[in-house]
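Known limitations

Files may contain more than one protein. Parsers should not assume a single record per file. Below, a two-record file is shown to illustrate correct handling: read the sequence, read the token line, then continue until end of file.
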Amino acid sequence: MNRKITTLLFILCLTSMISGNLFAEEDITWVAKSDMFTARAHIGCGVIGDKIYVIGGYDGFSSLSTVEEYDPILNNWTVKASLRIARFGVTVGVVDNSLYAIGGRTSMNGDSLTLVEEYDPVMNQWIVKSSMPTARSMAITAVVNGKIYVLGGEPSYGSISNAVEVYDPLEDEWTTLSSMLEPRYAFAVGVVNDRIYAIGGYYFTGNLRKVEEFDPVTNSWSIKPDMQEERSWHNAVSINNKIYVIGGADSTGLLNKVEEYDPSNDVWVQKENSLIPRMSFGAGVVDNRIYVMGGYTTNNPAITPTVEEGTVNFLVINQPPVAVCQNITIPVDENCEAFITPEDVDGGSYDPDEGATITLSVDNLGPFTIGEHCVNLTVTDEHGEFDTCQAKVSVIAETPPPVTIVELTNYVINLVIQGNLDNGAGNSLMVKLDAAIKAIDKGKVKTAINQLNAFKNSVKALEKSKRLSSFEAQLLIDAADLIIGSL
């Protein structure tokens, strides 16, 4: 069965579920956006709500304390409260709408810092938090379940770390975890399904394409497939359970290449290049759009204030509908014939695609004579995809409702035996009838009536959920009413 494919621009928040639809990625469309006020590289970057914050950095002469906020909707920048201490190579994590600027250093050859500052965007102010145990710059952060994981980096100029420490903002405490398998700095991370992926970077042997996966639950690392390109000073973002690695540098120079990693099948795929090669830049995601900003470029001057927006375009893949049938029992009319509609034998057919519409049809609407007949229900979506199922139509002579509670009980049992009512629903109805019988035997009329009314409500619910035909439901309700009237 061929599946038709329609194009859809995927516009859901990064943390949203993908409803019932299936998507396959296309490429990324890149466009230039408004420049930052200050050209800078080695910046920290974090997203709070629908705003992107660029923290600190290096302008080619000195470290910066300045902070800028980018509004992607208005495409403009606003200056915010500066860091308490100017620094670059700072890494950033966001938890509960607070931004944490961690580590970094104040000069190109200076010592790395343990400093942690928390930014409150509502108050537009910074406060100092508990220091990181290991001084580091050029480290990378990942946030999982409200905790900030700091990985690798440079403890001092010319050294490379594989240390991993986690910060709990609620407790303002740090914990040391299992180290990465490979020491590295100038790398990138992505988070998918609460797993952290350390990607590429630099070690003394050169640029890396190696990838490691960290499981915070087991506090353990495992090796994953290498990137296609070795690179350092790149960045990465996560969208729709995929990781997009952007730019950086290899042994030949700066890159604008983009790779996508799918952890579900461990496959790397090349995507559309960003507009310009850049390294040591910031990146963030708002409404499923990638924003890269600043860094070193091949242009003059080398450090840039430029910003690019990358929109990930998706294909929505149509999924066929699912046909669900129910067996029904119907009486003949005055001409000893019976007719049905598709809805009569529909037991809750559905389409897994969100917002899709379906149509129902059967291969035989009647007339039917007394006896059992099989019909085929076909469910079709707007793309022509379909599914079928078979239902049994039992045609009977007009049957008067049971007039005693024992007759009603036997009728429910027969519905189950004939396959017109599932065991679970039959047992639920029988429990209420048994309770009514016991109440009648004890002379507790009010209790019996309450149980019979509960029986009627259950029958209505079964009819609504299409677990019982309308004919059978009305017959059971009429019988219950007759019995109530006789008490």
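...continuing to the second record:
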Amino acid sequence: MSDYWDYSKADKKFNDRVKELTSMIGKMDCEKNTIIEVGIWKGTSSIAFSKHFKKVYSLDIVKSAIDNLNSKNIQNIEAILRDDKTCDIFDDESIDVLYIDGDHSKEGVMTDLKELYPKIKKEGYISGHDYEGNNLNVKKAVIEFFGREPDILVKSKTCKGCSNFIYKK
């Protein structure tokens, strides 16, 4: 495995990200059975979510990210290569939390929201990363979709301007 994927628990940034996501999850007053995560990258968020949710569905369009996450053999994580039919495998109102950190274009975020919002349970949460900072596409998309600012904003300590947004459904 290449050094690119070496993002172990001994890594300070990894531990800081896990703490950040744990703090965010603590602000969500809902069941912690299932989460859909959009965007795997190195798998840090997936691993953090696996400590709090019974089942983590991690979606990505990058096969090497899927392969890397699957190689970790974490029992409650299912990494899925996303295509235009992937969202159909989830029943409407069956997921507790959605976490978006994939395509950061406005169109990409809007697609994620439109396709996955119906899958979230009533009283569930829609959340994501990179709400603030240099790339305002995420912020523009979520405000357009919800028509308002997030219910909760969790500032990131792992990267400047990478706040996590939270909306309750």
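Parsers that stop after the first record will miss the second one. For reference, the second record is described as follows. The helical segments are 12-26, 44-50, 63-71, 106-116, 137-146.
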